[in-house]
């Protein structure tokens, strides 16, 4: 029996069918090109729209993902350079008898801008699609291919190519999603970790104006220190044997490298990462680009109210820092923990003073190895939670749309990352929220009526309510949720604690967040922020 078919201006697709966690059918269309393959002269550059095809495109299986190593599966190498593909999952296709369009959830995967993909092996639609939404997952370029930047404008590689991939995928959705039963006027972007940072950057980027209507940033934002990259390409010169060379020479050399050689150069860059300095590859502020993704600092845009006035939801897991056990690095010098985004020099006396304050708050006279829970708190706060907290405090007074804040504390068999890392102290690891929204290669059996079933159902209801209504709890009579989650309206920061029950509280992790806010306010970056505010 032939699979379902959809005809776009690009051509005709033939997909397949599957069943969700409740056993109900849905349609799958995978491996759909949303851009021309970024090969040859398009390598490192902004994506361009796809070309049409003839005949029927087989969309019954996924195509290539972006080239990367999978940290969760023994550093196995996946992907190819021809990766600008997306997947669409829908319950119903439009017909003469059914012209109702459904809310669209557009997923941006995480992985630090180096790893990950939109693959069904990592982000299966089986849970979210039970609430009758249309789901889109995408691949975008990672690492050097997606985030290298050159300051020479004649090279036309100002950076942020991976983020521009996301923008073009959103344009594809605006043009085509109605053919799959999705509503182009009701698109919610959501993502986790680097995907969460991407969501926040899209909220700030003029390039994405008019392409979405709601946003959810999970465990990541534009202010997190690991999201920012280095402008220019000088860091590549030693790995290429071109120390002292100009940018054009480096660019031409990089263009000739095979995918495997680029992967080897990336490995060198990752190993040479220096704490408390911007990463080699991440988002950059573009200064010499006619079509820039971002031309000003994220905090400047936030403080001056130049962000999209759309409902915004963000939050974190209680033990975000557990994820760093994948790449264990013992804290030896606490100056390494002071975020570079505070704008202190690494060797400045103030950096040492702040480092001593951090050590005293979290460890007293102990060492991190003797108090692993506090180590996780410190990494969580410095790398993720503080940035989210500042984002909420900065944006809510200037936002005409509601902002919702949450903390995830629920622990069940679905917390796959914590189980994978074999961590036994209390807390919810970075990435553990994924198992409540998507099926994946490690999803355990979920028994009807179990705490796992109840918890994922609540997650799915909250997220899809937000996509449908811009409010995660529009009806306090909902027997599944049994609560009313209020948006942030004061500096007390109302939030939802997502545990085995849903509880509305205020001031999450208040002692630690007040400490980090004071450090930031006293920093050079904080002083600049006061001038703008």
TrEMBL record:
Keywords: Disulfide bond, Glycoprotein, Hydrolase, Serine esterase. InterPro entries: AB_hydrolase_fold, CarbesteraseB, Carboxylesterase_B_AS. Residues 4-516 form the Carboxylesterase type B domain. GO terms for molecular function: carboxylic ester hydrolase activity. Its EC number is 3.1.1.-. It comes from the Eukaryota. Pfam families: COesterase. The keyword Cell cycle does not apply. It is an enzyme of class 3 (hydrolase). Belongs to the type-B carboxylesterase/lipase family. This is Carboxylic ester hydrolase. It comes from Zophobas morio.
